[in-house]
Structures are given as C-alpha cells and as structure tokens.
Amino acid sequence: MADRGLEGMALPLEVRARLAELELELSEGDITQKGYEKKRSKLIGAYLPQPPTANGAAVVRCRLQHGEGAPGRAPRSGNIGVCDVREAAGRERVASTAGNRPLFYFRFGVDQALPPERRAPVTPAPSTRYHRRRSSGSRDERYRSDVHTEAVQAALAKHKERKMAVPMPSKRRSLVVQTSMDAYTPPDTSSGSEDEGSVQGDSQGTPTSSQGSINMEHWISQAIHGSTTSTTSSSSTQSGGSGAAHRLADVMAQTHIENHSAPPDVTTYTSEHPIQVERPQGSTTSRTAPKYGNAELMETGDGVPVSSRVSAKIQQLVNTLKRPKRPPLREFFVDDFEELLEVQQPDPNQPKPEGAQMLAMRGEQLGVVTNWPPSLEAALQRWGTISPKAPCLTTMDTNGKPLYILTYGKLWTRSMKVAYNILHKLGTKQEPMVRPGDRVALVFPNNDPAASMVAFYGCLLAEVVPVPIEVPLTRKDAGSQQIGFLLGSCGVTVALTSDACHKGLPKSPTGEIPQFKGWPKLLWFVTESKHLSKPPRDWFPHIKDANNDTAYIEYKTCKDGSVLGVTVTRIALLTHCQALTQACGYTEAETIVNVLDFKKDVGLWHGILTSVMNMMHVISIPYSLMKVNPLSWIQKVCQYKAKVACVKSRDMHWALVAHRDQRDINLSSLRMLIVADGANPWSISSCDAFLNVFQSKGLRQEVICPCASSPEALTVAIRRPTDDSNQPPGRGVLSMHGLTYGVIRVDSEEKLSVLTVQDVGLVMPGAIMCAVKPDGIPQLCRTDEIGELCVCAIATGTSYYGLSGMTKNTFEVFPVTSSGAPVGEYPFVRTGLLGFVGPGGLVFVVGKMDGLMVVSGRRHNADDIVATALAVEPMKFVYRGRIAVFSVTVLHDERIVIVAEQRPDSTEEDSFQWMSRVLQAIDSIHQVGVYCLALVPANTLPKTPLGGIHLSETKQLFLEGSLHPCNVLMCPHTCVTNLPKPRQKQPEIGPASVMVGNLVSGKRIAQASGRDLGQIEDNDQARKFLFLSEVLQWRAQTTPDHVLYTLLNCRGTIASSLTCVQLHKRAEKIAVMLMERGHLQDGDHVALVYPPGIDLIAAFYGCLYAGCVPITVRPPHPQNIATTLPTVKMIVEVSRSACLMTTQLICKLLRSREAAAAVDVRAWPPILDTDDLPKKRPAQIYKPSNPDTLAYLDFSVSTTGMLAGVKMSHAATSAFCRSIKLQCELYPSREVAICLDPYCGLGFVLWCLCRHGGSAA
C-alpha cells in the first residue's frame, strides 16, 4: 500500500517494495507494530527532507504529556506562566494546563541573559485583594484591633453603592465550560515521553517556524483572555493573522512524519480514552481509514495505519496484563451523590510555596545546675524544711485583700498529711481504695488555689496520679458528661475536694451528692486538715528521683467536644520546670502574680510547679476578683513589687478600659509579663495598646513576653526577657489571601486584608522544632509555608490516656524530608498550632488546628471570622462579645455558621442591619460566604466553667434545632456553589423505565428464595422430630441440664433460669392440670394471660403436651384496667378460648371491682391458676396425628386498633424454627438477648419457639 505520508516523496522502487513487504508482514501478524515502525523508520529516514534553520531561529519541540511521567523523575522546576514569544530563539517558555488531560509544552532556547523586566514573573499578579489567616479564643477582647476595625469599615464603605444589604449571589462555575488552558490547546500530532531526558526525535523547525511562534503567542493570548477564571496576565501578547494558525498546522503536519518517537500505545485507541486535540476548522475534516485486503485499518495518534486483526491480539494480551485483579476498596463505598455534585476547580493563580525546605530548629542546650532538685517532691521537701516560713502562695478574696498565706512549711506538712490519708484511710488495710499509681480527681473551685495545691502535691508524695477538673455546678453542665467519660476511662473512684466546695455541690433531698450524668460513682474526700488524721512519726513519703511514671493527667477539650487526658510523666514534669526556669530566668524568692487558671496550662506550670521548684512567692488573682476589679492584678504587681506576671490578652484589655480610675501605678518592677495566649495572633493588638498606655507608668517594651503552649507539647516557645530595650520584637505583616492557601506572603500594612503577627520567642531549651504539612504524611514544610508545629523534647506529654491509636498519631510523629528520609530518630509531638519558624529562629503562630475550617479548598480560621464580625460593631450590638463560629457539612463541604448573643435592647431592624453588614465585611475581607447567621437572646448559649462559650455544645444545639434563635439570616446562595448538576433528559426509554413499566403492569421481574431446609441439618438429631413437643422431650433426655432460659430483673441480675428437664417437668404438670381441672380435650383453645417470664413459656408447652391450642395474651395493666382489659376480653372471645390460664395475682385482677366496671367478669371462661400445680405426671403426652393440625394462634392488635389472628400449624411452626436457627446460627452454645414482648410476631417466636435451636435466651 502506498503510504499517504509518502505519496509526494520520490522513493526508490526497492524501498517502496520493502515497505510493501513490511505492511504485509504486519497484516499477517509476523511482526509487531513496534517492529514495523522501527524498520519503516530506518528505510525512509535517509529520504526525508532536512530543511536548514537560520541562526537563532526557534526550534519547536511539541510534547504531548499524558500525566504518567517517567519513574524516579521529578518535574522540572521553572517559571510557569504566559510569556512573550515574539523574540526569535533564545528563550524557554512553558504553557501549562491543569488536570490530567494532555498538556502541550512549547520549549524554546534558553537565554540566561534575559533582562529581569522581560522575564515571566515567578508568581502571578494577584487578582483579588482580600483573603485571610487564623487564631483562637472566644471573647471580644481577644480580637480587638483598631487597625482591623478600620479595615472592616473601609471594606463596608465599598458596599454603600449597592442596593441590596446582603452580598450578591456568587457565580457558580460549570463543568460544561472549559476553564483551563486545554480548552485552547493548539494543534499537535506528535507524542512523546514526559521525561525531560527522553529522546524527542530529530524533528526540526521549518522556515515558517517564526510565523508559528507568533501564532503560538496568539493562541496563548486567546487562552488567557478567553478563560472565565483567568485573571489579568502580566505578560505581553500579540495577535497574529487568521491564516497563521493554518500555517502552524501545516508546519506541524510536515514535522510529524520526521518525528521518530516511540510507537503509540495501541491499547488506548478506543473511544473511551481518546487523545483529543483541537485543530483549526480547516483541519477538522474526518478521514476514512483505508482497508488492506480483508483487514480493516485504524489510525493511531501518529496517523499510522494499524491492522485491527493483529492489534486485537496484542491489545487483548496487553489489556489482560493491565486489568487490575480487584477494584480498590474505596470504589465499593463511593457515594453516587458525589458524582452529581459539581467539582470545585482549583484557582490556577493560587499562591504556592516556593522556598527551600525548612530545617529543624534546635533550641538552646538545657543547662545543668548543681542545686536543681532530682524531683519536684524533693524540692518541696527542701524548701519545707529549710525555709518553712517563706511564703509560697497568697490567695485573694473578692475585695482584693489577702485571704490566706500558704508557707512552704505548711505546704510540706499538709501535703504529707493528704498523702498519708489517701493511702491509709480510704478503704481497709487489706483492700485500700487508692494504691500508688491509681488516678484520683481534684475538684476545687477557681478561688481556692491553696487547697488545690496541697492536694496536688499530696498526690505526688503518695505516688497517686491527680486529674484536675472543673467543679460541676449542676447535673447538666455543658461538657460535664465528657469529663465524666474521662474519669471513667481513667478508673477514677475518689475525688478530692475542699470543705466549701463539698458543701456547694448539688445534693439530693437526702443530702447525698448525686451521680452526675456520665460520671462514675465517686467517693468525695475532703482534704481540709481538720478532717484528716495526723500521720505517725515513723511514716514518711517515699521520695525518689523523677522517672517515667505518670505525674498527672491534664484534660483537653477537642473540637468535637470530646475530652481527652494528656499524661505527663515525672521526668517530663521536672524537665519542663527546668526549661522554664532557664528560659524565664527564675530565681529564688521572686514574686509572681498569676491571673490564669491554676489547674491547667500556663497557670499550672508557672504558678504551681515551677514556682515551688524555685521557692517563689505566687500571688493568685481569682477570676471572680477580675470581674469586679479588672485592675486588681496591676495593683498587686505594684503592691508586692512583683517581678513576673502571668496574664492573658483579655486581662490586658480590661485593664486598659479601667485604668483611668487608678493612679500611682508603677510597673517598673516587672521584668517579665507573660502573655499566655500569645499564640493568638489577635493578642498583638492588646499588647501594643497596653504598652502605649503603661509605658509612661514604668512598663518597658522588652518586658512583654508572649508564649505558645498546648496540652500535648506543654510550653512550645516563649519570648525571653532581655535587657536591651533597643531590640524590637519580631513581627510580620502577612497576606490573608496567602494564608488561606497555607503560604506566607509579606504584605504592606496599608492593605485591608493583612494580618500582623508577633513572635512567641524562641524554641524551648533542650527541644527541637519543625513544621510539617497539616494533612497527610508529616513532611517538612518549605520556609514560606504554614504548617503544624511539632516538638521533640523530654518536656512534653507522652500519650492520651487509654487511647493508643490517637496517641500514635499525635505523640509518635516522625517528620520526613521531601525525599522520604526521617528528620531524626526520636519521635515528635504535634502541638496543634499552625505557624512557621521565621528569621533568627523566632517562632510565629497564626492559628490552631482546632479552629480550621476548610471551605472550597481554602483554610479559614473561626477566630478570624469572629474578629471581623466584632469589628463591625465591637461593643454596640453583640452582648459582651459572646459570638461563636463553627462549620457544618453541607453537600460534602464545610459551611460557616455564626451564632451571637444580641443585647437585650436590640430591635429586629438593628439585628438585621448588623447581620447584613457582617456578611458584607466577611465577603469582602475573607472572600467566603456565610451559610447561616443566627442571633440568640443574651446569656442563652452554653458556657464553659470560666464563662466562655462552649463551642461544641453550641454546634450540637444548632444541628439538633434546639438553639431557638430570635433572628436568623440564611445565605446558602453565597457559599453553596457545588449544587447538583441538572438532570439530563434521557433521549430514549432506558432500563429503569422498562423496569418501572413492568412493575406497574404487574409482571414479576425476579424473585428471591432462601436455601432449602430439606438439605441441611443432616447431622442434627432434632430434625428427626417434626413437632415441638417431641423436640423438648428429646432435649430433656439428651441435655437435661442445658440452660434454655435466663430471666433478668430490672437491676440486671438473674431472677430465674430454666433448664431442659425443668421445662419438660413443668409442662407435664400443666398438661395434667388442663386435663383434670379444666376437663379440656384435644383442639380446645386456651388463653395464656401471663407477664413476660418463665411461666408463660411453661404454659405454652403445657398446652402442647395436652393437645390444646395456646393463645398468648398481654395481661391488663394494673393502673390502666379500663383501657387494657377490653382488649384481653376481645382476644379471648374472638379466639373462642375454652379456658384462661394465668397467675394468682392476675386472676384476682380479672375479678376485681375495677375489672367489673370495665367488662362483665361473669362472661370469663374458666380461669385456672398455675401457681399451685399438681405433682402427677400425665399418662401420655399428646402427639398430633397430622402435621397440618393447629399448633397455636398468633393474635396482634395493629396501631389502628384492628385485631388480627394468624393460625400456625405444627409443620409451619417447625419449619419456621428451623429457618430462624439456620439464618441466625442459633447453636446450642449461643446466648441470645431478647428485649421484645413475647405475645405476638417475632417476639413470641424468639421467646417460646427458638428454644428449638437449643440456644439460651
């Protein structure tokens, strides 16, 4: 056959003859397609034209990328964008496309001397102005920022020209419209490998290649300006003539034959995997493949004719090898609904990290001080004996006056007394309630740190593990049930508390403390000295060096509301105290003012633990005093000349509000002001404002020391106090738009959507820190990428108590580099903080993992939304700044919900005006829609123990519909952009329509049938007997002691049981009573009116032994005879019962005055009492003569009051029992728990008949 591509070429006759032979061999299957191509290329290679190229002309290489690159090769890095191709030769440009469709790469010569202004930008010009960042907290003082407020007001000002108060609906992208570059793919017919180093062939440009270059630029320009999702490009474009595209196609067609690339994959020629290339209109004419003999020829991507007869054999073999043995497991659980949803296309202009891979940051070496104690208990013993009168802790009352001073001597002696009483006064000497290593709960109010401190150190001396928790105020506290689950999982049976707290706990009318919902049963033990016994003189606590035993368990509330217990070992506790001492420069006898919660986190580490190690004096400010006098902590700093203060940004904010009423403030004694929530980026506003106001009061800039911490990693980083006032703290202005994609981009403060963050200091001494990707494999981040901070140190938590799986994912993380190599041999701990390590080793935190909301692939933080909402009207509308933000899942994506408490005097008009402004501000600054904004009355949201909003409980109320908002604004059109695709009308009748039509017409399409009972139970002797009465007799002889029934009472204990022989004997006695006292004959109906229990079962089989037909009837309710007794009477009359069997108690009830008022008691059939049975045995047991005779009647009352009865024969009953035994696998060793009524239907069958299978019920 004359090849179409060679028709215009002058080939020698011997070459054409050889080509014909090759085609014949290919058609007959003598050679493969690959061999044919190889030999054909050798024959015609010498006769192909080689047009010369001018110096500097561009050499065009067109590569078709199929998505599966060469193994082991990383994609080439470079600037990917739209670039100017007008200059001749010497420049490399890449036009990339998104997705897995074929991508066209156009590469030109590289000119390293290209001036910077002519090169393509590394990052595309931003098309949007506003985006986001992250943080934590729930009160307005955490988010107060004048700069952010001004930014919000400026953003709202842009909406004044709009007529609508709410944001306009955002445009949804359609999958029908091509939004990527492949919609404008230029013509190409070449194929090749994705590998950069693969052989591309010797295709060369033609003299018209410069025109092709110009037209290539025109194609790129069309792709950019024609795309609906692309933004303004910074590259220059030039339009070409309309004929340039055709000339470029001719160039490609000529170079196609010369392209000696690898042969195409013939297995992908079918229409399911087409290689689609858009061509100009002039080149889209379809051509019919010619035939060669009887074999039909098909064209591959290279236009090479292939024999279908030969390729089918090869294709069948290749397809067999390629076919997977089994589809992935995920495919079995694919939700069909997901296929109907529109897929959100990623933004092609989204910023991506470009920096180098970060290196793990090592903190300073932990120094070794000779006088450091070997354990915290040893430190307490030293100071308690050497300096017993040194003040340890001073508590304050609500008036700000000293309430109690706890000295180190009192702390030592009282802790010993608590330890002795815990170990020796609870339980008995033989069986004590608490042993070393057990867990006990510490339940102390926030205004009694002294009692809590004594109990904590008493537990350490007794080697008992304390679990500090909040005081339960009511039985329905928010989150109290989860705390109870934690105590139960820890095996806590004893709770230590103070006398005042014990008296304030909720009590029952008898004076006992009720068991809180979800809590284990606890013994409340008061630790006041007057209630404790003095330890003997020869008793002394065993104080040993710090080891890997658990020291205490700190509770942590997760995002979903569950409570976990973080275990901290004794060596980690001591090392953490040493690291804090070195980082903060603590010395003996220093005074520290603590405003934080002393039961957990920074307040516990500094105010209870590290202070004792260094013999410091702690001034504890209760939260109740802070609410009355926000300046109280500043007053105590001045009064006691305190060196250190531990506060939160909210305390600094409220001090600013109230400072005008206070004079003579001097903060020059402070050398360190620890900001516990310094990891919250919004705390920088409070820090700056506090410094501006109190700098004239002696406060120095270097004194403010933010820190970052987490329950899992303890203190992550802290800013060191310095003496150099000229060294400014580290801070950065970051773009919120970049932060939504996890990328660090420095911006200017003039922008409205920027986040100013401050550093939280350096890594802790003796620790190593790195940032890993939040999702997937813990791979190290790049230097300009946001990741989750991980810490490797001794001073961290070790596990979540009792949760090995979650422990492995959090406390046993091994970060890896991009090549897969582990960073170190020791595991890291996830901190739950999102941030990065900046210049100079400074740590920056921009949010928390618990606050993340991933909406349409972008990361938003709940606290950012809170800050923007509060900035609209900071103090005028939201009641006390109480606002909650969380996400709910709608259509497989997270949607933002805002719930706020409005002020009591707010009108409905004010509410909706505020909500509309909030939606506008969030849409402008964060560029995300709000799904629902709900306003509730003041003081109605669930609260945490310290007065904040309980976020998980609020979310649960929202999902349950129990939030009861007073104003709601739903905006699904602004955020739900992946609505299901519209249904497509079927062009013709489909299989579903055929099936529905057959069903409507009454045709049976298919039927289901179970296994044949006749072919089973070959080894079961029970199948020899057709009737239930015979089976019971056989069971009583073969397995007389096998327990058939066990009846449990309401307490869960065994009330009675019944074996095979016991049931057989009781059934015999009942049969005798029916025949002698009732004078009944075969086939008479007997109504069985029994409560659920053994008597009902025995009466049923007694009827079968006597040949009677039993009917089980629910007895009347003693407290509602008027409505329940007529039903009993109706069943007895309809069933035509000749006798009624029941217990003595129900017999009296049927003949009572209440019964006489409801029915005619004289119309009852004879009533037999089975409480007193005869001791005789029947002469013979009845055996039915015909399997089709009646066995029992099944009566049931429908919900509409209709009475229906079903007749069951002996054969049907036996077959029913055998099928249930087979289906449920009721072997004799099985135990079946039945919680159904035994009067009709399945409940009756399981109660009375499934004993046929030999299982215990």
From TrEMBL:
Residues 116-213, 226-245 are annotated as: Disordered. PROSITE patterns: DMAP1_BIND. Residues 176-192, 200-213 have a biased composition (Polar residues). InterPro entries: AMP-bd_C_sf, AMP-dep_synth/lig_dom, ANL_N_sf, Dip2-like_dom, DMAP1-bd. Residues 226-239 have a biased composition (Low complexity). Residues 137-149 have a biased composition (Basic and acidic residues). Residues 7-176 form the DMAP1-binding domain. It comes from the Eukaryota. Gene3D superfamilies: 3.30.300.30, N-terminal domain of ligase-like. SMART domains: DMAP_binding. Belongs to the DIP2 family. This is Disco-interacting protein 2 homolog C isoform X5.
